[in-house]
Amino acid sequence: MTNLKFDLIVVGCGVAGLSAAVSAAENCLSVAVLERATRDERGGQSRFTEAYLRMQSETAVTDDFEDFLAENSGFYQDPDYVAESLSERQHWSAQARALPSVDASIISAFSEGVPTTIKWLQENGVKFDFLPTQFLTSTQPRLLPVGGGEAIVETLAAKAESLGATFFYETSGRELRVNQANQVIGLKAHSRVKGGIEFEGEVVVASGGFEGNSEMMTRYLGHRAAYLRPVCKGGYYNRGEGIQMSLDVGAAAGGEYGNYHAEPVDPRSGISEPSIFIFPYGILVNKEGKRFTDEAPGTVDAWYERITRKVYGQTDGIAYCVLDQKVKDIPNYRLGIRTDQPAIEASTIEGLAEKLELPVDDFVQSVERYNAACKGGEYKPLEVDGVCTENLRPAKSNWALPIDKGPFMAYPMISANVFTFGGLKIDEGARVINIDGDPIKGLYAAGETVGMYYRNYCGGTSVLRGLTFGRIAGRTAAGLEV
Predict the structure, then answer these.
(1) Are 206 and 449 in contact (CB under 8 A)?
(2) Are residues 467 and 435 part of one domain?
(3) Spatial separation of the C-alpha atoms in residues 367 and 327, rounded to whole Å
(4) Could you tell me which residues are beta bridge partners of residue 186?
(5) Which pLDDT value is given to residue 2?
């Protein structure tokens, strides 16, 4: 077995791992980066994402950033432990230090670290702008990197290479090595070309969640996980080893293991994120031909995840977005349709039911009931307009126009798994916490490998989480203060 020594071994080559690698290397550490993919495909999910960032400017996160994360940081938390978490960490009990909920200090460190991280990225050549998004209506602004996640990956990878970091492609971490004090002193890896490799050094696990591992998906999310698929091909590389090998050496869990970030996509498409965000302007029906949810409770950016989870709960985890020709009157309506597959069309509602293989009578009745409940009003497609249904269950709260102008169209929709919520608990320095509430020496985590979400995903924060705590991990490993 090959034996190699570095100051820091980074497992994963997405934005989290690369941020850790660059920040460590620019502080004079020798760095190894392990990447399961080939060089051309490096970057995992980060390579495929547009990388929406929840920021109101290049120097400030949105006003609701900390509040939203705090509101979705755990369930029914013990008030005594919550009170403890508002004091300095050294005063917490062992129970409070190891809780799977997200500490208030982590949320603060995250929020405060974002502007510095964005400035650091700009200094390293990444450009940002407020570019158009897929959301025709939105609550919060989204800053984007010019060129998307791929631009961040390639810019940071080139920077890491220029600083002397060594990349090991088609190589994945398998097992952490610890000494008698349970300090991480390296890891065992497997190279597709070279076989076993043993690395000596401290470790950053930044290898994503477990959305590409069907066994872990079923273990944590249940049998219906078979209906889920990663939102992009990069997600299939995320097989959970970083999380599992850390748990195996006593790491504390963080985040909601039985949940994930849901996005509505067209199952017929093989492109990255073939999302269907146009559904608030039509109705959603299941395989029984019946509506099952309010399609438009508010802006699509704030509600699509919750609605997508209801799609996931339907028969075979699928639903159909039904529209008529009036949708084409919405300015830039195509922004809400990412799929490369055409709509399924028919000149009549009955014909559409047949093409969708839905019970014709039930589907026609659903459309007729919905149309009869549309009461009219001042329709404003690009803002929440209150144009709703009357005496209909489930109701539709906004943009409720009758579906009566053929040809009629439909897009199949399933829930894609953007990333899993369960991961590792860390402190403000991105050090992995053990089950007794203490940092595991020599072990850090960043990105999806960190468990930070419960219930509803705080949109536009995942890439920021990877960038911010990746940079922090590298700096902590180099002995710098956060």
Answers:
(1) yes
(2) yes
(3) 16
(4) 177, 200
(5) 79
> What's the confidence (pLDDT) of residue 53?
96
CATH assignment at residue 278: 3.90.700.10
Give kind and range of the element (H or E) at residue 168: strand 166-169
Q: How far apart are CA 259 and CA 303, in angstroms?
A: 16
| pLDDT value of position 145 | 95
Angstrom distance (rounded) from CA 210 to CA 223: 15
**What pLDDT does residue 348 have?**
98
- pLDDT, residue 321, reads 98
Q: 120 with 139: CB under 8 angstroms? A: no
Distance separating alpha carbons of residues 445 and 437, to the nearest angstrom: 15
Rounded to whole angstroms, the Cα distance separating 137 from 201 reads 48
Does 449 map to a domain? yes
Confidence (pLDDT) at 90: 85
Domain membership of residue 226 (yes or no) is yes
Instruction: Quote the DSSP letter at residue 334.
Output: G
Contacts for 356-363: CB closer than 8 Å, 24+ residues apart: 356/320, 356/410, 356/412, 358/285, 358/287, 358/288, 358/289, 358/320, 359/288, 359/289, 360/289, 361/289, 362/288, 362/289, 362/290, 363/285, 363/289, 363/290
Q: Which pair of structure tokens corresponds to residue 30?
A: 């020798």
Run means of pLDDT, 10 residues per run, the chain, 482 residues: 92 98 98 97 94 95 95 91 86 90 94 97 95 87 94 98 98 97 97 95 98 97 96 95 98 97 97 96 98 98 96 98 98 95 98 98 98 96 97 98 98 98 98 97 98 95 98 97 72
CB proximity list for 414: less than 8 A, separation 6 or greater: 227, 228, 229, 264, 265, 266, 267, 311, 312, 317, 318, 319
Tell me, yes or no, whether 172 lies in a domain.
yes
**For position 1, what pLDDT does the model report?**
67
Q: 222 with 314, same domain? A: no
Statement to judge: residues 91 and 237 lie in one domain = yes
The predicted model scores a pTM of 0.95
**CA 159, chain centre distance (Å):** 25
**Cβ pair 452, 462 in contact under 8 A:** no
Nearest to 144 by CA among 123, 130, 125, 124: 130
**Residues 404 and 446 occupy one common structural domain:** no
Same domain membership, residue 238 and residue 378:
no
Does residue 453 contact residue 482 with C-beta atoms inside 8 Å? no
To the nearest 10 degrees (0 to 180), the angle between helices 462-477 and 15-25 is 30
- The boundaries of the domain holding residue 302 are 262-416
